[in-house]
Amino acid sequence: MNLFTTLKETSLSVLPVVVIVLVLNLTIAPIGWIGFAIFAAGAVSIIIGLSLFLLGTEIGIVPIGQSIGSALTKRRNLPLMIIIGFFVGFLITVAEPDVQVLAGQVATVDAEISKILLVLSIGIGVGLFVSLGFVRSVLNLSYRWILTIFYIIVFALAFLTDRRYLGVAFDAGGATTGPMTVPFIMALGVGVAAVSKHKDNEEASFGMVGLASIGPILAVLMMGLFSSEESTTVVVSTQAVQDQNFLHLFIDSVKEVALALGPLVAMLAVFQFTLLKIKLRALTKSIKGLMYAFIGLVFFFIGVHGAFLPIGSQIGSMIGSFEHPMILVPLGILFGGVVVLAEPAVWVLTEQVEQVSGGHIKRRIILAALSIGVAFAIGIAMLRVVTAMSIWWFLIPGYLVAITLTFFSPPLFTAIAFDSGGVASGPMSSTFILSFTLGASAAVGGNPIQDAFGVIAMIAMIPLIALQILGILVKKKEERTAKKNKARSNPK
């Protein structure tokens, strides 16, 4: 991966968000020129950070995950794979910045939901389903049937749980798959598939992230089953961005990234001496990649926490205060179409898809499908904020369609689609979009714990449908091409 090319690509992804905020500043949501200048500086920080992170991921994080997955599979020791899969999934998730951000935002609107317990439950859920992903690859289990069975369980629990946990649970499934977990979990899947006996290595290479997204949903719904506390809603903060202290922001970002990368470094050390025994040259390259990723994520989170999160809350609050707040719906569509392209994990996913498929599935096609799908998702989320509609009206038909499509879409596209649902709902969604939604919900006088949470779930759900439809269209195109080629080779 070339750093200059990556800088160009990430700039084209982030700049549309800056343009939208500029237009809003000049029209319906004036945040002031100082606020916009800080937002623009945050965007530059995100561009630099995202580029360095992607470079570090390619040369450092992905090779480690692939090596661990391959080494575990070669041992043919399924119990060992299950144990290590749980350990890896749990450790990375507990340290995932997106999970910490989501848990903190939940605490701002419902103090009775324990932040620590929420984080630990999400970690356990991911760990269990990473182990299930290993079992699926080794035993060549049907991906569509695993999804069908566990989503039936998910919705059965959802009907029984405390409704305060409903939106949070489905949001947790999306927020879990952030900039650290996605590259590593995907790399584990690729490594396992490379040496497994799966009949289709392309299909087996994907789907691990999609499975990992189910675990947190189940775990948080289980929390709701045993909850007996009454909700205590507090005021959502819309503190002005000018109040941010850069030194504190830098220190907090370094701490966040250290927590995210610390477990990876520890696991690399343990696996290096016990399982991998990577040669010095490759090990040095991996360490270099981890350093790039560390610096990149520090820049990224400075931009997110210092600009995108507080500005998102400010703008949401301003527009939600309008006499006719329905303008939130088209604005949400506009944001959704461009914000997903600034997600770090989206770029990691699309590149790996293009590589594994040998260039057959183009990055730009997947990006376009994700952009359209997420735009629609955030538009629906804004409609819920304005009307206080139950999330059930969207989750039930949405997942019913998504699961039904698994029986018609090519298996490879199904696995990619359920991975995409997780990666589309990354740091940008967990910070800018969720803070925008929380600010808007508070301003319209709604209940943020029920009306605002669920936006990440909507973002995670729509790509499941969009990419599987894309798979069906690609399949039909290939069938037509095959018929034409057959007709040409066998003329009457």
List the helices and strands and how they pair.
Elements (H helix, E strand, L loop, with lengths): L2 H24 L6 H42 L3 H17 L2 H13 L5 H25 L3 H18 L3 H12 L5 H15 L5 H5 L2 H18 L20 H31 L3 H41 L7 H12 L4 H13 L6 H25 L4 H14 L5 H14 L2 H17 L4 H4 L3 H35 L3
Q: What this model shows, in words?
A:
The protein is an all-alpha fold and 492 residues long. It has one domain. The protein contains 20 helices and no strands. The chain has helices at 3-26, 33-74, 78-94, 97-109, 115-139, 143-160, 164-175, 181-195, 201-205, 208-225, 246-276, 280-320, 328-339, 344-356, 363-387, 392-405, 411-424, 427-443, 448-451, 455-489. Helix 2 (33-74) runs parallel beside helix 8 and helix 4 packs antiparallel against helix 7 (164-175). The N and C termini lie far apart (49 Å).
The structural class is: mainly alpha
Terminal Cα span: 49 Å
- Provide the gyration radius in Å: 22 Å
The poorly predicted ranges are 238-242
How many distinct domains? 1
Instruction: Provide mean pLDDT, rounded.
Output: 82
> How many E-type strands?
0
Helix content: over 70%
Sequence of secondary-structure elements: HHHHHHHHHHHHHHHHHHHH
Q: What about the largest sheet?
A: none
Number of helices: 20
Shape: globular
Strand content: under 5%
